[in-house]
Design goal:
Layout: H1 20-28, E1 33-36, E2 45-48, E3 50-53, E4 56-59, H2 65-69
Antiparallel strand pairs: 1-2, 3-4
């Protein structure tokens, strides 16, 4: 998903429905995600790229260079 302000498209393939506090959290902490169309019953869900840390979340580290190419 790419925010519209960063050149992302405004369509369902690039959409996450969030409440106000979670929307701000995603932007404040530079968390990324992608739309997964393999959800049960033909649905879609967002997979956030985060790690659990204590009682909160933080962005996941970037993939290793070899993993990014695969």
């Amino acid at each position: 998903m790419v925010h519209w302000a960063d050149g992302g498209e405004t369509n369902l393939d690039n959409l996450a429905s969030l409440c106000g506090p979670h929307h701000r959290f995603i932007h404040q902490h530079h968390i990324t995600g992608h739309v997964d169309s393999t959800a049960p019953r033909g649905g879609r869900r967002v997979r956030w790229h985060v790690m659990r840390v204590g009682f909160g979340w933080r962005p996941a580290p970037p993939p290793e260079p070899d993993e990014a190419v695969a």
